Amino acid sequence: MVFPIIYEDENLLVIDKPAGIVVFPENNEKESVIDYLIKERPELKKVGKAPRYGIIHRLDKETSGILLVAKNNSALEFFQKQFKERKVIKKYLALVFGKVKDEKGEIETLLGRNPKDKRKQKVYFPFEPGANRKRIAQTSFSVLERIGDFTLLEVCPKTGRKHQIRVHLSFLGHPIVGDKLYSFRKQKNIFERQFLHCFWLKIKMPNGKEKEFFSPLPKELKNFLEKIKNG
């Protein structure tokens, strides 16, 4: 599998990740982005540690869009520090079920593993059992378009918790279209993948200048939008 390259220099590789493949091996997955990259670029095995190697951050298996890969250890440390310090700005497009009433919103909750289903994360309220040691998760959103019984959102996660956007939107009562883990029963088979795409990212480069990356909406997501617009 060959991934479209958005940008490349001596420190950084930026690829356009498709949906349907994990970023690095987990849960006995047979193929991953880093596995394919190493086949083409074996020198990436010298960056970081297995199984992540040069992967700077992650996207969920069914999420598409911008993914950053460091090409050397100093770059890996440099870029990961920005993620840890929440200095990286990421924007996603998400199509959700229902009509989101507010034009803009902020979601801030505690987030942690769901004890009833280890595949899932859940929102915890401050004083409920198990809330201690759960981490703060912050997400902002704005409405781009309301299309029939759906809403297209621009979503910006301010923290980087596992499944954060998916859990937060489901918590609002507006799960992402195609999200089989967090959508409600009657909604699970409407689309073959989740409609979540990382389309824009801004980060500081080693030379001190900020750089922006853009990924266009994949064809299957464009086609689905056209389908619901045309009824």
Please explain how this structure is put together.
The structure is a single chain. 17% of the residues lie in helices and 32% in strands. By secondary structure, the protein is of the alpha+beta class. It is globular. Strands 1, 2, 3, 4, 5, 6, 7, 8, 9 and 10 form a ten-stranded mixed beta sheet that branches. The model has no long low-confidence stretch (mean pLDDT 95). A hairpin with a 7-residue loop joins strand 5 and strand 6. It folds into two domains: 5-85 and 202-210, 2-Layer Sandwich (Pseudouridine synthase); 92-187, Pseudouridine synthase (2-Layer Sandwich), CATH 3.30.2350.10. The chain contains four helices and ten strands.
Q: Can you summarize the main beta sheet?
A: 10 strands, mixed
- Beta-strand segment tally: 10
Number of domains: 2
Question: Can you tell me the overall shape?
Answer: globular
- Beta percentage is 25-35%
Helical content class? 10-25%
The whole-angstrom Rg is 18 Å
CATH architecture of the largest domain: 2-Layer Sandwich
Indicate the structural class: alpha+beta
Describe this protein with a few key phrases.
2 domains, alpha+beta, ten-stranded mixed sheet, Pseudouridine synthase, 231 residues, 4 helices
In short:
This protein has 231 residues and is an alpha+beta fold. It has helices spanning 33-40, 73-84, 164-171, 219-229; strands at 5-8, 12-17, 64-70, 89-97, 104-113, 121-124, 135-147, 150-157, 196-204, 210-214.
Q: How does the SSE layout of this entry go?
A:
Elements (H helix, E strand, L loop, with lengths): L4 E4 L3 E6 L15 H8 L23 E7 L2 H12 L4 E9 L6 E10 L7 E4 L10 E13 L2 E8 L6 H8 L24 E9 L5 E5 L4 H11 L2
